[in-house]
Every structure is written in C-alpha cells, then in structure tokens.
Design goal:
Layout (H helix, E strand, L loop, with lengths): L3 E5 L9 H7 L4 E7 L1 H4 L6 H20 L4 E5 L2 H11 L4 E5 L5 H17 L2 E5 L14 H10 L44 H15 L3 H4 L6 H4 L4 H5 L5 H14 L5 H26 L22 H8 L6 H13 L4 H12 L6 H11 L5 H12 L12 H8 L4 H6 L19 H7 L14 H16 L2 H5 L1 H8 L10 H9 L5
Parallel strand pairs: 1-2, 1-4, 2-3, 4-5
Helix pairs in contact: 11-12, 12-17, 12-24, 15-17, 16-17
The chain binds flavin-adenine dinucleotide.
Flavin-adenine dinucleotide binds next to helix 10, helix 12, helix 15 and helix 17.
Length: 510
C-alpha cells in the first residue's frame, strides 16, 4: 500500500486534524515536521515562537507515541527534505493544512506544489480555519465560515486506528536557536506551548473568566485575565478554531438563563473568532499586503520619512508617554498585549511618530507570541490608515491612560520610575516642575523619557497629511474595489448584528 506523508506545520495537535485523518484513511502514514532555516531567518521570526513550537512538538510527539506513531523531525528547506525522504521511503501523497503565511512560506508552498507535480505526488491541503482559498467573492464568505466551524470534528485517532509507517531513517534533533540565528531574548513570562495548556486556557475562560470579558478586555490591567488568551494556541494550531467555536457554543447553550453576562461575553468572543478568519482572509486573497500598502494610493505616504530615533525610542520603551512605554515593557516581559493597547502602539507609531508600518510590524511580529501573519499585517495597515477603507483611528496615549489606567497601577507596575511620580502628574509626568522632580527623586529626561514630539501638534499634522491624501479623487476612486475585495459584508447581515455591535464597542470597523 502507498504511504502518505502528513506534513505538520501550524497545526500542532492530533484532535480535529483533518490532514492526519484523511491520510490515515488511505493507508500507512508518515508524520513530518520541518524546521526551515529560511523561515527562521526572516525578520518576523523570534525565539519565543520557536520555543513555543518546541514545547508543542514535544507534546505532539508524546501523543503520537501513545497511538503507536512517531514524528519525524527534519531540518532543511522543505523541497530538499521531501526529495531526500522520497528516496528513502517513497510516498504517494502529502496531506497538510492550508497555511496563510508570509511571503517566504507562500513561495515555499509554490515550490512544494511544483515538486509534487514533478514527482507525481498528490498534495491534499485542507482548510483549518474559516479562510477560503481562491475565494471568488466576499459575499458568501460568512456562510463558508459557518459551514467550516459547524462541520463535525475529527476525533483523536485511537491506538491501532492509524497505520504508521516507521520512518526509514532517524529524524534530526531540533537545531538550537542560535544555530537558526535567533536572538537570545524571549519574554520570561510568556505563555507556554502545547495542547494541554490550550485546553486548560479554554476551560478556565469558559468556566471562570469570561464574565469579565466585555468589561475587562480594554484595560491592560484586566485584559490578561479577562481575555481568552487563546491566540498563541490558535496561531500554532494546538487547538482547532472549530473546537474553540463548538466548545464555546455548547457551553453557552448550557448556561442558565440568569447567566446573561456570560452569554453576552461568549457572543462577543465568537465574533472575534470570525474576525480571526476575516483578517487572515485578506492576506490569503492578497499576499502582497504583508509588504505593500493595501491601497496603492498611500504609497510614499511615510516610507521616505523614516526616523530611526523615533523607532529606537519606541522599541526601547522611551517615547515619554507612560502608557506606551509601559505597554512596550509588558510586551517584552510577557509576549502579549490586549487588542486596544496593540492598536494604540501602532497608532502612536503611525501618527505622532510618523513611522511606516512595515518595520514597526516586523518588530511587533517578534514581540507577539501569537504572531499570525494574516491578522497582524491587516491590523498594522488598518491601524496605520493605509487600507483606504477604514476610518482613521488615532489613539491618544494620554486619554487611553486616563480611561484605562486612571490610578496608574499599570504604568507603575511596568515602569518603576513612575512609582515616584505623584498622582497629579501621572498622565503627563514631563510637566512636573523641576523642584518637585528633585523632591520625588525622579528626573524627566533620565529616569522617565521626555516625549519625543509634541503629541497634539504632531498628531494634527499627521491627520492633515492623511486626510489630504484621502481626499484626492484618484485615491477615493480606488476605494470601492478594495471594499469589494476585502470589506466585511456583515453589516448587511441581520443575524450577525451582535458582531457589529462588538466592533463598535472597540471603536473598530472593518
Ligand atoms: C496591530 C495589531 C496586531 C495584531 N496581531 C495579531 C497577531 O499577530 N495574532 C493574533 O492572534 N492577533 C493579533 N491581533 C489581534 C488581537 O489583538 C489579538 O488576537 C488578541 O489580543 C489576542 O488575545 P486573546 O486570544 O485573549 O483574544 P480574545 O479577545 O480572547 O479573542 C479570541 C480570539 O479571537 C481572535 N481575535 C481577537 N481580536 C481580534 C482582532 N482584532 N482581529 C482578528 N482576530 C482577533 C484571536 O484569534 C483571539 O485569540 C493584533 C491586533 C493589532 C491591533
């Protein structure tokens, strides 16, 4: 019987694994994971991603051994690995999940498709999200998302159900991070990988934490426990999107009528799971949005004005706006930040600091443990105003602090020097009189950075530049085609009105 190869990528689980189950139905199966040096050499790759994957692979390896299988780990470019394996142990087909990755993984997938054609190997790719490959029109997208997430889940194969082909050769030990050229710093308080933790996080959200979801998601103080914290587990496929949706729907259906707060929270949560795929769909349909403006009329807006001092201060958490700097430190320590604070960081970079989104996005991709290219680059462009179809959203970091950290607990937690600043000066410490600074033992410009620019004037200028461009007839004319290709259709979709409400709560439009 012909062996099939199951290629694990960002789907590090056995539960609801379409590719594995489909392959197993055809005959013997060989499971493969490839560590690709070219992928890890990209500016969006980080040590924390690699460590999370290693932890998840270890658990996957154990789960496979329990049912008589083994995971063959290889290091190299995928086409080379396939060629070598095919000689050692011929296989007739490859099964994998579709991946909406960066330009490098997209090019690699095309090379794999070519290799398969040359070697007469069939490649079966299965969707793992509600993202549609070669989507003809956005009009039916919502129905396709529903069909994907409501389909029956594939069970974890039991021992004996899968005929595992023993690997002909021993796999490689995973390379060390330094062999891959990864920088040596990872957030010490990041989430750890693996399916067991993914399930724990989902259960703790549904059973204990979701009641605070809507009220707690915006403040960086409450968000770490109020939000689900499933993003990294979804990004690396430790749990399937379908499993999260179905488990949530079942839990919501079983809640007693008086648990209305939890029910509303779960509706809001499921609407974010739509957004997950809605944003990935944009990159799937237009891979170039990773590196060029979605609306080409915005080309040249910021690209030629790169200010290295602004960028270095942002990365160092030295912009001078305490809320921004505290977010940068939290990110460095934990690898996670809630949506509103991510949006604020990008908005500050894009408007008062006038930084082009691409280098900012590369830095943030490395900072976010849950880096998911489709969500990430779409959000970077949306928050920077280069999609041309979203309202300009400018987050004022002083107002964000007043609204979401009025007592300064957050900034004082992550910026120790702020602990010496009296409450009166919490939001604008640079205005503290010098004699008071001396009395409090804090020097603005040393212990606390001086703001890089005058926030009000710089933001006003940025908005003027943006709006002048937006008003140009050619720029306005190109908008309709982008809306048609990428815009959400959900506002016209009555049963999904709740999701639009959720969007409005976040001050967030599609
Ligand atoms: C500039 C920027 C970059 C971002 N980059 C990423 C990224 O690389 N990976 C990523 O998963 N999320 C990204 N997000 C979206 C969002 O901030 C995170 O999904 C969320 O903070 C993760 O925490 P959670 O799992 O507790 O979210 P929850 O609020 O519990 O949401 C549940 C899930 O829904 C999805 N989701 C939530 N909010 C959004 C959103 N606004 N857009 C799309 N999907 C959403 C995520 O899969 C998330 O895990 C980004 C947002 C911004 C503004």
């Amino acid at each position: 019987m012909n062996t099939s190869l199951v290629w694990f990528k960002r789907d590090l689980r056995l539960a609801d694994h379409t590719a594995l189950c489909q392959a197993a139905a055809q005959g013997p199966v060989l499971c493969l994971y490839v560590v690709e040096p070219s992928v890890w050499a990209q500016p969006d790759a980080a040590l924390q991603h690699y460590l999370f994957i290693q932890e998840s692979l270890q658990e996957l390896q154990t789960a496979l051994s329990a049912i008589g299988g083994t995971l063959h780990i290889a290091t190299g470019e995928v086409v080379d690995v396939l060629s070598q394996l095919h000689v050692q142990q011929p296989f007739a087909a490859i099964y994998s999940h579709e991946e909406t990755g960066n330009a490098v993984t997209y090019a690699r997938d095309r090379a794999v498709a070519q290799w398969c054609r040359t070697h007469r190997v069939a490649w079966h790719e299965h969707p793992q999200f509600g993202v549609v490959r070669r989507l003809a029109s956005r009009d039916k997208w919502q129905a396709q998302w529903q069909a994907h997430t409501s389909a029956a889940r594939w069970p974890v194969p039991v021992a004996g159900a899968v005929h595992f082909a023993p690997p002909a050769a021993a796999g490689d030990a995973m390379p060390t991070p330094s062999q891959l050229g990864l920088a040596s710093d990872a957030p010490p308080q990041r989430q750890l990988g693996g399916r067991a933790l993914a399930l724990d996080v989902l259960q703790s959200f549904l059973q204990d934490r979701c009641g605070h979801y809507r009220s707690g998601m915006s403040s960086p103080l409450s968000a770490p426990s109020a939000c689900s914290r499933l993003s990294a587990y979804l990004a690396y496929g430790c749990i399937s999107l379908r499993e999260v949706v179905q488990t949530t729907q079942l839990h919501a259906a079983r809640l007693p009528p008086e648990a209305s707060q939890q029910k509303r929270a779960l509706v809001a949560f499921i609407s974010r799971l739509h957004w997950h795929c809605h944003f990935i769909q944009k990159l799937e349909s237009e891979p170039a949005l990773e590196w060029r403006n979605l609306h080409r009329g915005y080309d040249g807006l910021r690209e030629h004005d790169w200010n290295p001092a602004h960028f270095e201060a942002l990365v160092a958490g030295r912009t001078g706006w305490p809320m921004v700097d505290a977010c940068v430190v939290m990110l460095r320590e934990t690898g996670w930040l809630n949506f509103r604070m991510r949006a604020m960081l990008v908005s500050v970079a894009a408007y008062p600091l006038w930084l082009h989104w691409r280098p900012v996005g590369e830095w943030l991709a490395r900072q976010f443990l849950d880096y998911e290219p489709g969500i990430h680059w779409s959000q970077l462009q949306m928050q920077s105003g280069t999609t041309g179809i979203n309202t300009t959203r400018v987050y004022n970091p002083i107002k964000q602090a007043q609204d979401h950290d009025p007592q300064g607990h957050f900034v004082r937690r992550w910026l120790p020097a702020m602990r010496r600043v009296p409450d009166t000066w919490l939001f604008e410490p640079w205005r503290m009189p010098p004699e008071l600074q001396a009395r409090c033992g804090v020097t603005v410009g040393k212990d606390i950075a001086m703001p890089l620019v005058d926030l009000e004037a710089a933001t006003r200028l940025a908005k003027q530049r943006m709006h002048a461009l937006r008003a140009q007839p050619a720029v306005r004319a190109a908008r309709a085609a982008i809306v048609d290709r990428h815009g959400s259709r959900r506002r016209r979709d009555p049963p999904e009105r709740h999701a639009v409400k959720g969007a409005a709560q976040l001050g967030f439009d599609f």
